[in-house]
Design brief:
- The protein is 68% helix and 0% strand.
- By secondary structure, the protein is mostly helical.
- The chain has helices at residues 2-16, 25-47, 49-57, 68-88, 92-111, 125-141, 144-147, 161-176, 184-191.
């Protein structure tokens, strides 16, 4: 057993000692993935703020949230400013918290009733019938070969899958920070190191 443990730790040292200098790449990848997600969400809300406020507040066709003007502005600017902060890696841990709150609100207020999947599972008979009907309409009235040339048609389920994924990515950034050598946070920590 000792030989196996020594072999394991030897391999680990060979493959994972050098990459410790590259450990900022994973947080950088998470940040860069999340930037366009939050930038688009935030700037679209800001551009159509009146519609966003109505959607946040209307209980019939919207979210029915209290204080819709306040919450719409908070969500929109948290997402847009958060995207910029993630881009440069500034206050990464701090901005992850309000962004996680926006994800939790989105998960429970917007996506929860749609279940888990972002894209509806075509193995469900109900979904298969709808996809079949859509395919027939497109074959009859459209250029189906051109429309499906880049991929299949799907029914977007709008479930919690994407929101939970973004939430977990932010949760990871809360603990890792912006990343070594790849964030403003790292260079600020070098300028002002922690006092023991």
């Amino acid at each position: 057993m000792n030989v196996l443990a020594q072999w394991y730790y030897s391999l680990q040292n060979v493959f994972f000692v050098c990459p410790k200098y590259l450990n900022g790449l994973a947080p950088l990848a998470l940040r860069l993935y999340l930037v366009p997600v939050f930038w688009m969400a935030g700037t679209q809300k800001i551009a159509g703020m009146e519609n966003t406020i109505q959607w946040f507040g209307n209980p019939d066709w919207g979210l029915g949230l209290p204080f819709p003007s306040l919450l719409a502005h908070l969500a929109a600017y948290t997402e847009a400013i958060g995207a910029l902060m993630l881009l440069i890696g500034l206050a990464t841990r701090w901005i992850s918290i309000p962004l996680m709150v926006t994800m939790l609100v989105a998960i429970f207020a917007v996506h929860w009733d749609n279940g888990w999947a972002a894209v509806a599972d075509a193995s469900s008979e109900d979904i298969a019938v709808r996809l079949g009907a859509a395919k027939n309409i497109l074959q009859e009235h459209g250029n189906y070969a051109w429309l499906t040339e880049k991929g299949n048609f799907v029914i977007f389920n709008n479930g919690i899958e994407s929101g939970v994924t973004y939430l977990l990515m932010l949760f990871s950034l809360l603990f890792t920070g912006g990343g070594r050598f790849t964030s403003v946070d790292y260079f600020l920590s070098r300028l002002w190191p922690k006092k023991s």
